[in-house]
Amino acid sequence: MSGGNYRGRGGARGGARGGRGGARGGRGDSRGGRGGGRGGRGGRGGRGGFGGGFDASDAQVIKPEYNFKPEYESEVTQPDPLPKIQDLIVAEEKERKPEDPYQLVRRPGFGSVGIKTKVGTNYLKYQITGMSFWYYNVTFQSEINTKKKMKQDLLEILLNKSPFQGLKSKISHNGSDALYSSAPLPISKEDEKVRFDFEPEEYRGVISSTVLTTLKSSGKKKGNSADEDPQVYCTVEFIHKLNMDDLNNWVQINDKKNIEPNAYISALNVVLGYQISNCSNVFMAGKSRFFFVDHPEKCQSFQKGLYIASGYYASVLPSFDNVMINIRPVAGAFIKSHNKDGSPMSVADLIADYFGETDLRKVSSNEIMSQKWFFKGIKIQRTYLGHKSKPKGIFDISKSETANNYKFDCDGKQTSVAQYFESKYNFKLKYGDAPLVHLGGSNYVPMEACMILPGQEFKGEITDVKGVLSFSTHRPHVIAGLVQQDGVKKLTSSINPEESKRIGTKLVVVPSRVLSAPVLEYKNAKIIFTEKQADGKSEKAKGSWDLINKQFYEPVKGVKKLTVLVLENTRRPLRGEEKSDIEAACNEFVAEVGKHGVMFNKKFAIKAVSYDRVENLTREIVSIMKPLQASTDYVLTILNQKEKAIYAAVKTALDRDLGILNQCTIGNKFARRKFGKFDIQMYALMSMKTCIKLGGANHVLSSADVGKLVVNGLPALLLGADVTHPTNNSNGTSIAAVVGSVDAKFNSFPGSISVQQQKQETIQEMSKMCVERILAYQKSVGELPQTVLFYRDGVSLGQFNIILDEEVTAVKNSFSVVANRLGVKFDPKLTFITLLKSHNTRFFPLETNAKNEADKMVAVAAQENILPGSVVEKGVTSRSLYDFFLQSQQALQGTAIPGHYYVLYDENKWTPDELQKVTYNLCNVFGRATKSVRVVPPAYYADLLCERATCFVQGAVVGRNQNPVDAIKKAMGSGINKNVSGRMIYI
Fold this sequence. Notes:
Layout: E1 72-75, H1 82-95, E2 115-121, E3 123-125, E4 132-140, H2 142-145, H3 148-159, E5 171-173, E6 178-181, E7 193-198, H4 200-203, H5 209-221, E8 232-243, H6 244-251, H7 261-277, E9 282-284, E10 289-292, E11 300-301, E12 306-319, E13 322-335, H8 347-354, H9 365-370, H10 372-375, E14 379-381, E15 392-393, E16 396-402, E17 407-410, E18 413-416, H11 417-425, E19 435-438, E20 444-445, E21 451-452, H12 465-472, H13 476-492, H14 497-500, E22 507-514, E23 520-521, E24 526-527, E25 562-569, H15 576-596, E26 605-611, H16 617-625, E27 634-639, H17 644-658, E28 662-666, H18 667-670, E29 673-674, E30 677-678, H19 680-693, E31 700-701, H20 703-706, E32 710-711, E33 714-715, E34 717-724, E35 733-740, E36 751-757, H21 766-781, E37 787-793, H22 800-822, E38 829-836, E39 843-845, E40 849-851, E41 857-859, E42 861-862, E43 865-866, E44 870-872, E45 882-887, E46 899-906, H23 912-922, H24 937-952, H25 964-972
Parallel strand pairs: 1-22, 25-26, 25-27, 27-28, 34-37, 37-38
Antiparallel strand pairs: 2-22, 2-39, 3-13, 4-6, 4-8, 5-6, 7-8, 9-10, 10-12, 11-12, 12-13, 14-15, 14-21, 16-19, 17-18, 19-20, 22-44, 23-24, 23-31, 29-30, 32-33, 34-35, 35-36, 38-46, 40-41, 42-43, 44-45, 45-46
Domain PAZ: 364-454
Region (Disordered): 1-57
Pfam families: ArgoL1 (PF08699), ArgoN (PF16486), PAZ (PF02170), Piwi (PF02171)
């Protein structure tokens, strides 16, 4: 039995409630949370305590049904690229400059190990032979150059001016600074900038009054009259002709002509995207995402004020021997713009719909005020003006001014907004007592006169994640059918008919190999996957197992002292029955984790932590736990609700301020009984985190599957790195992390964190953090590593060269720093690999079984997906770089997303087979899961550590005159407390 108490500490006011929605949540209720995300009334806060909550006012999403049958090309046959790649390497070596010590690795060969099969892809061939584009650069005045929407609108106006108008059907633009024409324009003189002026009647309604004032001021300095309209112009300069035959030769490595392929690919993508998005029924949302919405009112309602729509991602990509188009179904949430009868929706209609009403008069002003964050920023049209005007964003919703009570001087007499609209625009208001919409400056307009601009994607937090998944998650054969039978037709029908003929009609097929699963070891068991023919069950076991009757490979040493913290809000203290349930659940948890190898003293303290506001929670935990620190090895914190701010406060107190190993769980799940029993399986899975944090090892690779990771008894040093750019981050900083292995079983990966300026492409303190990881390895292993294998997450295709130049250089520099510090020779061989997670490539199984190396038919697919261990390195991979796709996990729902790995630097010279197998094997030993994972663990761990570090600076504010990095570093404090810096606190 536990020997604790529930006295705790705390203040007097209920902080977790959040009133009527707080800054970003919903209305909540007297015991609710802050709402969660942008969920409107109730959000995800539920009824507080340990209860859950569901906001019934959100529409239930119905999963769409599709019955398309995809068609595939015959298997891709391409010439062997290796001889050409070798010639390329020789040519590049001759041109290498002394100041360029590192070169991107070219493909050394292909793998051969595994069951050979073929898979479909979401790619189609794109025939670009004979295509050409003339590329022009457009420059606007400096006052306009940073205004994206203004430039986009001005470019459209430009195309209606001479000499562009007659060639308009041949011209595309990127909305910023580039024109591409399939025919030369009559200004094509190199190095000559031709000026084009915009007339006031052209730019009025496009350029904001603020920018016009600035332009006027600039004109006055040049001697223009104060009453004169400002000059607005741009210059157009011919840059060069892009002959796509040059790109064709480049992908085929047919000649040594040095071209910049990105310029050609960008041109193809701009032209494709511009033509598609110019169709009247197409919304372009983000980069290369197109939504075909003929009737928004017929789309499914979603979260309050939103509808959900389906569309397609489409992008041109080069591969060896081919240029292709990658197409994938996507889903997007949009602001409602039409009523159910198809009529345009006003802001008044939208607000009523948001609150589940049909009449705005049924919604109180207080309710509107509590949720106005949702409406701020939405673009509206002022159709009452009777002419086309620039869409305006909602700046605010007035708290007290209405159309009836807000008066202003008009022709010498006081006139209300309602009277003005009736006399000026013959617009009689229905909701004269509704708050006015503030459009900036002195511009206050009635809600019902502001019409929602169609096609606005919602940028806030999606709270109905289940609804999104239901709508957008499909099995591979469905995605393949959507792409080939629906997506291609919609996309090609939107572009020039002659150009559409260049796009293939069948999906590309590529060769694949399926690697064998590694043997995993527990203390008393082994996980061995036996290859056999698919039977609907056995193939699902690859990369998936359980903890039943299994003891961890290395149990936690000794009996540990546990303290349980139970969070409660002062406005909603725990009831007696809840306390009893928690105590019983804790005893059950201690018993269950003990079966797997984590022994806690059966007498443990349970302490209540009462808090009034989340901002005070860290201080409350520190005050309670500081006296208990010497008698506590581990803290289990039972959260009263799932809220990021609460979780961050707990982790800040225990990981940063005190340095006590800990983990969190949600009370309503932890203490929930089903048929009178607690969730033992949940406790078993929790024990995996507990074991690793306390220094144990859960499951490990067999010695045979460790492969080249251990040479002569010395393990390689595995490093992982990532950078997190927090969403909605206004403090101008990012957090970087590097983790590193410290044992021969590749089980423990403590890490280092750093703060840096936001939007920087590289990790600024890479060398420093690598030094820390190398020294931690040496302290644990007793020697310095001879082999370093580095997995870098969060890198895009266009960043490879800068990563090579700066980060690989920094890692190599860390070796020199360690050598100098220790006075030894130290120069291990480095292999540096980047991982792309956010890509749009998907694979579809074309066979259920295939012959293995013993000529027996065995499964190569499971749950309608390709099998874990599937590797693709031909057909849709890079022209000559060293890359491969690896599908390493089972897809429980939908379609599996493979990892895309690029080897940027390689001194170890492992073969493709060796590197692919090592990467796949590591995906099976992610510390807290009984499944193989999609992302190789060192990179995955770095991502988790970045997330943990963001907890330490939750709510930090940067002063007006403060350097953001210095301010956030100060808020971060010492970061990971030295008491726990050698452990995986983040897992």
